[in-house]
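Supplementary Note 3. Input sequence used for the single-chain structure prediction.
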Amino acid sequence: MSQEEAVTLVAYLNRAGLVIAMEGQAAVWRDALYGVRFEDAQEAAREMVRAGATKERFATPADLFRAVKKLRGSRIGGRVAPAPPVPLDPAGELLFGRVYLWALGSGASEEDADAVACRRVGVKREALAGPSRNPREIVEAAAAALVDEKRECGGRQEAVVGE
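The predicted structure, written as C-alpha cells, is reproduced below.
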C-alpha cells in the first residue's frame, strides 16, 4: 500500500467518524497494514463503515487488518487448492496451493486462481475436452444427439421402457 492509498483510507474513515485524522497518521496506517492490498483494505473499510464496526472507540489499523482477514477468508470459503497439473516437489506443491488460495482471496475465480498458480510454479494445465458449461450449448448438443438417435432408429418412434 502506498502513502497516497493510506491517506485515502484514513480520510475515508475520518469522514465516516471512525478516526480523527492527524498529521503523520497515514504513515502509521501504511506501516501497520504492510502487505495488505489497497483494494482489500478499501472494501474492508467500507464494510466497517456500513456495520458501524467500532462503537465506543476509534478504529485502529488492527481493526482494519482483522476486517481484511475476514473479507479474504469469506472469499476463500472452505475451498482447497486443486492438485497441480503435473507432479511437483513438496515445496512446489505448497507454493501452488498458497498462490491459488491467495488469488481466491484477492477475488479471482477458481479458473483464474488456477491459472495464476500454474504460472507461478511454471506449469501449464491442459484444457480438458468435454461439454461446455454454457447452458445453450448443452441444450443444442442434446438436441443434436436426439436427432442423430432418431435417424439411427429409422425415424420410427420406439417406446421407452418404464413409461
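The two ends are 66 Å apart (CA to CA). The chain has two domains: 3-76, 78-154.
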